[in-house]
Design brief:
- The complex is a heterodimer.
- By secondary structure, chain A is mainly alpha-helical.
- Among the domains of chain A are: 65 residues, no CATH class; 140 residues, no CATH class.
- Helix content of chain A is 71%, strand content 4%.
- The longest helix of chain A has 38 residues.
- Chain B is globular.
- The longest helix of chain B is centred in the N-terminal third of the chain and has 25 residues.
- In chain B, strands 1-3-2 form a 3-stranded antiparallel β-sheet.
- Classes of the chains: A mainly alpha, B alpha+beta.
- At the A-B interface, helix 2 and helix 4 of A face helix 2, helix 3 and strand 3 of B.
Amino acid sequence: MELIDRYVAEVGRHIPEKMRSDIEAEIRSLLEDNLEDRARQQGRQPDEEMVVEMLKSYGKPEKVAATYQPPRYLIGPRMYPTFLMVVRIMLLVVFILSLVKFGFAVTLSNGGLAQIGLSFVEALNTFLSGVITSLGVIVVVFAILQWKLPQQGVESDDWDPRKLEPVTPSGDQVKTRSMIIETILAVVFLLAFLLYADRIGMYMFVDGRWVFAPVLTQTFYNFLPWICTLWGLGILLNLAVLRKGRWQPTTRWISAGLTLLNIVLLLALLGGAPIVETTPQALEILKGMNIAPDAAGRLGDVLGLLARMILAILLIVEAVDLGQTLYSLLWKKTSD
Amino acid sequence: MENEAYLENVILELRRGVLVLAVMSQLQEEQYGYSLMKLLADQGLEIDQGTLYPLMRRLESQGLLESRWRVDESRPRRYYALSSEGKKALPRLKEEWQRLVAIIGKIL
């Protein structure tokens, strides 16, 4: 009966240790009964052929082991949509960072096709390794959450239909998940600007060490209190909306007001002096890297252009947002 | 082809609920797994062994069955029987089954 021993041991290998010996004993008992019955029916002693036939009818060991356990997930159905959203955001961020790296490399290169190709391969490498590392971290974090978070609790049946919230018109519904992510990102950026504004700039690897060169101008720092104030107010508004679970006319008007102020701020930033430049420190470092002054100048131009493009895109986004908010307030029927 | 697979799934789902009642009804007296499977098969209900044992363990963890190991014919076997909770639940399950059969019979 060596085959039965091997079969039982193989099933046991796929079963958690705490229940293994019990299930193994149970399966062995069932198989022996089964074999005895077959031998009786066929009127002969059990042989290897009979054992093989019986084990085949019982099923593959992994499959048998699986029937003894509830479905197990690394990331379960409840967490999966959030996981997907975080992965999408990560992909976008890594892609943008790789693109920026490629842009810098092209600007600082001597314009040769071979060097641009090399920069492209490097950027692709940054993208792929960034995606793999980030994906690994995200999967580990979600797997820990899946393991640690309590399963959907049993909810009380004591509820009153009269206490249900009124139906929220589609225009007033809050996209909770995206608003939470937006708020978290806003808090992270706000903290970064409040605590580390002086460390935002270019980091370059020169002579075996990382050197930092600021790129933000005094104009930017003059605007920083306004940027942080508007961001802070936006975060407070998001929290209020999330708490209420839906948009209301008051929160809509506040949102419209904040968006308008954002537009004014963006226009001021676009119309004023540049907010990024190759500062004297940056020029000094680039010189140390044997980068020609005209290439360094080009880098300054690219940085300035990039900043203006980002501001222009933000301006368009804010304008569209303002239009949508005003449309919801003035033309669409709302719940209040 | 897809429809055929879907139908088989529906039939499997239908059977799954009924199996609990069938198994519990046969465990008013102690049975070990293989004897229970034969008992059900003799009455026309074939049940896959990979389904029966996990089902009995689940019912035991829910407190409807209890089990003990006993050495029979020089071989250890696990015997299952209705627990006191299971004995209370069985008449209610039977009643519900009769009611369902009557209703579905009328509907069909």
